[in-house]
Amino acid sequence: MLLSQYKTDDGRTQLVARHGSEAYDVKTTLSLYEIAQEAIAQGVSLRDHVLSLGLNGAVDLEQLAQEGRMLPPLTHPDPAHLHLTGTGLTHLGSASTRAAMHSKKPEDETDSMKMFRMGVEGGKPANGVAGVQPEWFYKGTGAALVAPGAPLPSPAFALDGGEEPEIAGVYIIAADGTPCRIGFALANEFSDHVTERQNYLYLAHSKLRPCAIGPELLVGDLPDSVEGTSRVRRGEEVIFEKPFLSGEANMSHTVHNLEHHHFKYDLFRQPGDVHVHMFGTATLSFADGITPQDGDVFEIEAVPFGLPLRNPLAHRPLGRAEPLTEIRVVS
Fold it and tell me: What is d(CA 124, CA 146) in angstroms, rounded to the nearest whole number?
C-alpha cells in the first residue's frame, strides 16, 4: 500500500491510498498523523486500519502533483515536533564520492573511508545485537520539510545546493516511547556540498538545509534492493541522469541497525513526535561536476514508491556579503 496526502479545494488535508495503479480518497477527514496514532493506540496495522475506514472515488495523483497540491505524506501539527535526521556512508560505493571530496592525496585514507570500512565490517551484525554506529547528522525540524513540487530554497550564504536521492524511514513515537515505523518514502536530502568539501567539520553546516520526502509513503517492508533514477532537469533538457541503489542488498548497514542508533537516545523517543530518518546514498550530481542553477528541477523516482519526487531549486544569488545576524540583548 502507498499512502499520500493532498490539499483539498477548501484547504483540508486529504489522505489517499493507492493499490497498484489506482489511488482513492480514504473515507476520513483526519490526517495520516491522526490515523496512524489511532492504529498505534488500537494495536492494529496501519494498512488494516486504513482499509477499515473505506475508500471513496479514484483520484488522479499525477494531476494533483502538477497542480502543486501534494503534501508531505506525514507531518506533525506542530513542526517543532518533527525531526529531520540522517546517516551517511551507509551504501556500498558511497565512500568513494565522499573520500574524493576530502582526500588531499590519493593514498590518504580519510575519516570517511575509515567510517565506511567500519560499517562494512560491523554494520550488519547477527543475532539481533547492535552493530557499529553510523555517521549521523541533523537537518532540522518540520520547518525545513518542503512539500513535493515546492521549491527547495538555498540560502544566500550557501555555496551550493545539490540533491541527494535517498530512502527515508518515517516514524511516530508511541505513548510509551516506542518508535513506530509508519513506512518508507523517497527523500531528497538536499545539501551544500561545496561547504562540506572545504572541511569535513563543516558537514554539520552543509546539512542544515531544507529537504523533501514523498509524495507517497510505502507501507510495509522495504524491498531488499531498490533501483531508482536521479535526474536534474534544466528546462527541457536532462543535464544529469544516473541510477541509484538502496535497500539492504546495497547497504553496509541493516536498516534496523541505523534505526537502533538513532532511537537509542531518549531525546528521540518523546511520545507523539514524528521522525524522518534518511538512510544515505551513493549517487550525487555534484560528484559528476554538475552545478545546479536556479529553477533546475531535481527528480527522484523508484517504482515501488509511486510518483517521482520533484522539486525545483530556488537559489538566491551567491557571493553576496551577508550582514551579521541581529541579536537583541535583553538584560
Answer: 32
